[in-house]
Amino acid sequence: MNTNSLQQHVNEPTRGNNSLHLVMTTTDLSINGLEVTGKISDHQMIDFSLDVQDPNTRSQHKQVLDYKRASFELMKEELGSYNYEVLMSKKNAEDCYMILKDEIATATDHHIPRK
After folding, report:
1. Whole-model pTM over 0.85
2. Burial code of 37-75, b = ≥16 C-beta within 10 A, e = fewer?
């Protein structure tokens, strides 16, 4: 989850020995006082507070990818230049996914400008 900019805040079981209840946020949000408390049926309750900013006080400028000015041919060449057989040799599926995700992110940074 942390690889997708999400943070899981419940770190203990909420039903028997299992963690069935999730409190996930983007890493820029803050959870305070999270507690796994009393039961409802056979599930534990989760009590917490969430710190949020007034949306009007946040920066209104957000950089986005400018696909109209992208160099997709160069991006395709860069992604095609990697020897994925060697990069992913003896790796499990999650490791292969992370390698591919990182290579695509790098190529995106190199060939798609932001505006």
Report:
1. no
2. eeeeeeebebeeeeeeeeeeeeeeeeeeeeeeeeeeeeb
